[in-house]
């Protein structure tokens, strides 16, 4: 009799588990990403060894440019916590209008290369608080560079910058970090000053 009780109990337990498993709605777990810790904005100035200055994040490292075609006064501003990098290039213009046009054309071409993957490229021409002309390009979609800019006084100085993330995480998931970096870059642009005119030929 005890054996029958055990069998009946076991059968009842299996039935309950089966019913519960059939009626319970299955919800797949969303794909998880590491939580991004965005530090409070805090800034410092570039060193005196450069012909330009702006305020950049205290949470970033100032590095020499690491590209194969690097030139003097090219730098990288690296954010270790976000795996983000702002690549800055600089050219003295020497009042050369042809050179200015070439640099603007090059910057446009570099941005346009992302059109294949970009769902949108929003470009704005604006004037900084100190009167410099800036072209701001925001790129949407799964692009390697989400934010690019040029700033010039059209006479002596030309600067270009581009944001990159060294991560495989999709841009949708990086959205808070991208927005954070855009604000930091705009702070760089708005505090940019040329220390001296570009050297004459």
Tell me what you see in this structure.
The chain has 201 residues and is an alpha+beta fold. Helix content is 27%, strand content 31%. The chain has helices at residues 2-23, 97-112, 175-190; strands spanning 43-45, 52-53, 55-57, 61-64, 75-79, 84-92, 118-127, 133-141, 147-152, 157-165, 193-194. The protein has a seven-stranded antiparallel sheet with strand order 4-5-6-10-9-8-7, sandwiched between helices. The termini are far apart. Residues 2-6 and 8-33 have low confidence and may be disordered.
Distance N to C terminus: 108 Å
Q: What is the percentage of strand-forming residues?
A: 25-35%
**Lateral arrangement of strands in the main beta sheet:** 4-5-6-10-9-8-7
What is the alpha-carbon Rg in Å?
27 Å
The total count of helices amounts to 3
Spans of at least 5 consecutive residues whose pLDDT stays below 50 are 2-6, 8-33
C-alpha geometry = globular
Major beta-sheet overview: 7 strands, antiparallel
The helix/strand class is alpha+beta
- Give a count of the beta strands, DSSP E runs of length 2 or more: 11
Write down the overall mean pLDDT. Answer: 82
Assembly category: single chain
One letter per element, helices H and strands E, the order comes to: HEEEEEEHEEEEHE
Helix content: 25-40%
Keywords: Lipoprotein
Organism: Dawidia soli
Pfam families: GldD_lipo
InterPro entries: GldD-like (IPR019850)
């Amino acid at each position: 009799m005890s054996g029958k009780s055990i069998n009946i109990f076991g059968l009842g337990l299996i039935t309950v588990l089966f019913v519960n498993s059939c009626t319970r709605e299955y919800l797949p777990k969303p794909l998880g990403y590491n939580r991004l810790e965005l530090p409070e904005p805090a800034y410092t100035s570039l060193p005196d060894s450069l012909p330009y200055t702006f305020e950049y994040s205290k949470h970033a490292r100032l590095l020499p440019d690491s590209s194969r075609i690097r030139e003097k006064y090219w730098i990288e501003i690296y954010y270790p916590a976000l795996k983000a990098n702002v690549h800055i290039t600089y050219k003295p213009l020497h009042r050369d209008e042809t050179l200015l046009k070439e640099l603007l054309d090059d910057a446009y071409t570099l941005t346009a290369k992302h059109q294949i993957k970009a769902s949108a490229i929003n470009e704005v021409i604006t004037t900084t608080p100190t009167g410099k002309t800036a072209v701001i390009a925001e790129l949407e979609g799964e692009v390697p560079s989400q934010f690019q800019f040029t700033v010039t006084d059209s006479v002596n100085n030309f600067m270009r910058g581009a944001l990159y993330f060294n991560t495989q995480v999709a841009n949708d998931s990086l959205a808070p970090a991208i927005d954070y970096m855009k604000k930091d870059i705009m702070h760089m642009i708005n505090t940019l000053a040329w220390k001296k005119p570009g050297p004459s030929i």
